Amino acid sequence: MGLTPSAAHPSVLSIDKVMKQAADAAPRFKKTDPTKKAEFLEAIASNIEELGDALITCAQKETHLPVARLQSERSRTCSQLRQFAVMVREGSWVEASIDSAQPERKPAPKPDLRKMLIPLGPVVVFGASNFPFAYSTAGGDTASALAAGCPVIVKAHPAHPETSSRVAGCIILAAEKTGMPTFVFQHVTDTSVESGQALVMHPFTRAVGFTGSFAGGKALFDLANSRKVPIPVFAEMSSVNPVCILPQALKEDVVAIAARVAVSITNDMGQFCTKPGLQIVPDNEDLVRYVKLLAEAVSKVGPVPMLHEGIAANFYKRKKESLDVQGVKLEAASVVPSSSLLGFPGIASVTASDFIAHLTLHKEVFGPWSLLIRCKDKTEMLQVIDTLEGQLTASIFGTTADLTANSEIIESMSNLAGRIILNGVPTGVEVCPSLVHGGPFPASTDSRFTAVGVPAVKRFVRPQCFQNFPDELLPVELKDKNPKGIWRMEDGEFKRF
Amino acid sequence: MGLTPSAAHPSVLSIDKVMKQAADAAPRFKKTDPTKKAEFLEAIASNIEELGDALITCAQKETHLPVARLQSERSRTCSQLRQFAVMVREGSWVEASIDSAQPERKPAPKPDLRKMLIPLGPVVVFGASNFPFAYSTAGGDTASALAAGCPVIVKAHPAHPETSSRVAGCIILAAEKTGMPTFVFQHVTDTSVESGQALVMHPFTRAVGFTGSFAGGKALFDLANSRKVPIPVFAEMSSVNPVCILPQALKEDVVAIAARVAVSITNDMGQFCTKPGLQIVPDNEDLVRYVKLLAEAVSKVGPVPMLHEGIAANFYKRKKESLDVQGVKLEAASVVPSSSLLGFPGIASVTASDFIAHLTLHKEVFGPWSLLIRCKDKTEMLQVIDTLEGQLTASIFGTTADLTANSEIIESMSNLAGRIILNGVPTGVEVCPSLVHGGPFPASTDSRFTAVGVPAVKRFVRPQCFQNFPDELLPVELKDKNPKGIWRMEDGEFKRF
Fold first, then answer.
1. What chain A residue is nearest to B391 in terms of C-alpha separation?
2. Residue A231: its chain B contacts at CB < 8 A?
3. Cα separation of A157 and A131, whole Å?
4. Which residue in A280, A497, A257 sits closest to A388, CA to CA?
5. How confident is the model at residue A107 (pLDDT cuts 50, 70, 90)?
6. Beta strand A185-188 pairing with A207-211
7. How far apart are CA B459 and CA B148, in angstroms?
8. How far is B189 from chain A (nearest CA, A)?
């Protein structure tokens, strides 16, 4: 792109400059016409596409992810940006609401009150190692914050700094081309922990988006809450995505279920926040066949390079910690990797009582690993579910008869997670308004929001009420004549035109 | 009512019992038919009304608030409950969203995804001393949490325990009469700090609502964030509600503005979270007249008993702290109170530079007190606004010419607050969907939500996504045929039937 981001390689001291520039951009960006904002988001997508194979090659070199996967992730990233553009152009997302004045009302007159969502201000985004496009520099957090009207500051991920810089160039170029305020987007290429902390602690920062480890997300959450003025942090952190297989389904669909779950565990070396890390299964003769099929399938995969050596090292460390727990039995052959980067899938099993007794087994093992929890009966299944932490997803395989007979299991699994799946695997996140990517802690820091889909914009806005404003001083979304033709709540009725 | 709440006078140990009972009630209350929930909310309102004068007398004795005010507050409380009942019965508030399956889509089939808001679980409510009805036992927090489908645990306020118990009786009786699950509402009459902490820390508590002091709200917020599983706290805490008077309005409307602002400062001894505690005014000859009119008006009010001796003592302490600051000039005669309960209004003034230099002047003085900040020009006004903390409200008095010439002031004041008011005073909160009662920290702990109006329900719900569910297993709000006829987002289109 031939573009040097202005905030390249700042020292921690210059974070102050970055945040002042973002704060300067905030009021101008807030006032920018939604149509222009939509063009900006679309231009980012086009610029990313225009980088073509060079960007894929760069990302492949930095992340070792397969080319086909990176192409599909890039396509998802651009599609996300365009979905937000559609939302911004259409305009109803601001939840405009009008309650008309009643000057004659007794005992007191009713004032004119109008409300809409407005941007919080500068948002700091920390991308993910495992999604160099879709959850990184121009990923869902950046797209939703820009759609909200918030300037964005992205801290480059140390695992793919060059990919991040190239994508940042696309955003900055798009901002210039579509006439956005200067510094509406800034890219901080200093990947130190200190610069990340300085970004979160800066008084001009108004919200944080994070995707990554529990340790990282929780540290930022605590830091943000320790500020004189605490700010919201939406951190998507840790999930083991339990899959419960009910008895009749295990008997009747064992081949198909084993095939689907094996792919979900091993695809891209299981480096997904929605990888099924736990399976709650009946301890019966059908399970023997399931374990055999699953073990065969996962053993055929790999070795394959993982994202980086740190991820691989942590995978083997966490896998060993699981295997060291009393009663945990390795079920799929695991080879000693020939290089410190290579991953090799594995599965293990444990009884429900040993699982319940050992909390280390409840924690995420990031990578191609899944633990089967052998349950004697429905009661034990429910006991296991009861001990689990909050999750992004919870999946249940069951025939119609299974599901009818096990409504408590559906209910308990639902309580755990943001997304509950019947007869499907948790990987393969569909980007659409009805998706929820988030869930009870520690899946995310605030289960009231989603990180995927256009409703993710809600993380970065607040309602503002305008009392007794003359029409000419109201934002366009709240003017009497509804010039944008958006959906509004008008005196209790949903109306469009 | 002849009703003894089951959780009367629990020790801290028995908080565990209270929370287990709430957790037991949660799944049953979640599944309760919305029509029945609406009847429950309406029955609470009717029961409160049926207590008649006895309840007003009790509240008057405990809070020293005037009878007429208490009657109007009770009426607001019942109206709030009925507004939530209307919302629950109508049903569209769950934000149902459907994205249909596309089994033939390439490269991958699209699953059926549906989403709606579900209750978080048990909510602990801490009421306010200054609103024994509308922000207490059956106030906005309780009404919105019950409307969301969350069991509620109210900790009685020590300043009006008998009023709280009587209202709690109304709720429990309404729950019984309308067939709600046992323990859908519990009243904790142990007013100790320890029992409050135990409620916030209990693992079954899923969210907290609080209205009160900054110290109290911030302590609960920090406590909730220190939990192994942090939970959301919506605390409405501290606001000085700046009022900016622009020059032409000060010249032309001085009599009317002084009269309105004086009432807003002194009504019910200024014991409102929206009392105008700061006034940003031009330091010119019109101000001399304004100060004289305001001083005369406020000096005619009182002495009047305040809510309790602690509130009165704190009022005089904070007032003295303000007056002790260099450059602060008392403008309205203040008398030494004849009893430790009596309040007497006062106003003072200070230059912009002295105000900016002394942060103690920026903090709320709860009671009938307002500080005028004398500004040399617009630049100084903007400098003052820039130093202010987050607010519930920000008000501007201005003629059309004033407002046109001072768009930066409107913009800066808007950035501070959840509600921005033109030519009106901040007291007198209208309960309607377009109201925002909340604002940037420290006005509230999360500016993304409101505590007043039916959207307050959003604090206590989370979205849940249902993937690949057969119609018979979906909640009624998400079934194909939309049997409740609610507004839903269906494949990107808002539809009702």
1. A464
2. 441
3. 10
4. A280
5. confident
6. unpaired
7. 9
8. 30
Euclidean distance between CA atoms B138 and B140, whole angstroms: 7
Residue A348: Cβ within 10 Å count: 22
CA–CA gap between residue A270 and residue A369 (Å, rounded)? 7
CB contact at 8 A, A200 and A35: no
Whether residue A494 and residue B487 make contact (CB cut-off 8 A), yes or no, is: yes
Q: Which residue has the tokens 């941007």?
A: A119
Helix (H, G, I), strand (E, B) or coil at A489: strand
Peptide bond into A345 cis (omega under 30): no
What's the confidence (pLDDT) of residue A336?
A: 64
The verdict on a CB contact (< 8 Å) between B465 and A99 is no
Total-model pTM? 0.96
Tracing tokens 């036992």 back to the chain, one arrives at: B137
Residue A4 has pLDDT above 60, yes or no: no
**Res. A386: pLDDT tops 70:** yes
- Whole-angstrom Cα distance, residue A157 to residue A134? 13
Q: Please enumerate in sequence order all residues whose Cβ is within 8 A of that of A438, keeping only pairs 6 or more positions apart, or say none.
A: A234, A236, A392, A418, A444, A446, A447, A449, A450, A451, B463
The pLDDT of residue B497 is 72
Of B153, B222, B236, which is closest to residue B449 (Cα–Cα)? B236
Query: Order of strands, edge to edge, in the sheet holding B278-282?
Result: A493-495, A488-490, A97-99, A113-119, A461-467, B417-422, B391-397, B243-245, B278-282, B369-375, B346-351, B329-330
Given a cut of 90, whether residue B61 has pLDDT beyond it is yes
pLDDT tops 80 at residue A13: no
3-state secondary structure (DSSP) of residue B455: helix
Strand partners, A185: A152
CA angle B51, B183, B433 (to 5 degrees): 65
Task: Supply φ then ψ for residue B369, to 5 degrees.
Answer: -145, 140
Instruction: Please enumerate in sequence order all residues whose Cβ is within 8 A of that of A375, keeping only pairs 6 or more positions apart, or say none.
Output: A280, A281, A282, A283, A352, A381, A384
A129, A136 contact by CB (below 8 A): no
C-alpha to C-alpha distance for B168 and B44, rounded to whole angstroms: 9
On the CB side of B293, CA atoms within 13 Å amount to 18
Closest in B231, B442, B465 to A435, CB measured: B465
User: Mean pLDDT, chain B, as a whole number?
Assistant: 95
Q: Which 8-state DSSP code applies to residue B273?
A: T
Q: B469 contacts in A (CB within 8 Å)?
A: 420, 422
Q: Which of A448, A457, A497 to mutate to test the interface with B (most CBs of B within 10 A)?
A: A448
Whether residue B95 contacts residue B116, with contact meaning beta carbons closer than 8 Å, is answered with: yes
pLDDT at A1: 34
Q: How many CA atoms lie within 13 A of A100 on its CB side?
A: 8
Q: Which residues contact B385 (CB under 8 A, 6 or more apart)?
A: B242, B244, B280, B409, B412, B413, B416
Residue pair A169/A110 in contact by the 8 Å Cβ criterion: no
List the structure tokens of A49. 């596409």
- DSSP one-letter string for A21-49: HHHHHHHHHHHS-HHHHHHHHHHHHHHHH
* DSSP assignment of B96-144: -EEE--BTT-SSSPBPPEEEEEEE-S-EEEE--SS-TTTTSTTSHHHHH
Contacts of B114 in chain A (CB under 8 A): 434
Give pLDDT tens digits for B102-127: 999 988 899 999 999 999 999 999 99
* Cα–Cα distances in angstroms (integers) from residue A428 to residues A43, A301, A433, A441, B6, in the given order: 26, 19, 15, 22, 49
Residues A240-259 have a mean pLDDT of: 98
Q: Which chain A residue has the Cα nearest residue B423?
A: A468
> In this prediction, does ipTM exceed 0.90?
yes
B273 as an active site residue: the answer is yes
Contact B204, B22 (CB under 8 A): yes
Q: How far apart are CA A127 and CA A189, in angstroms?
A: 12
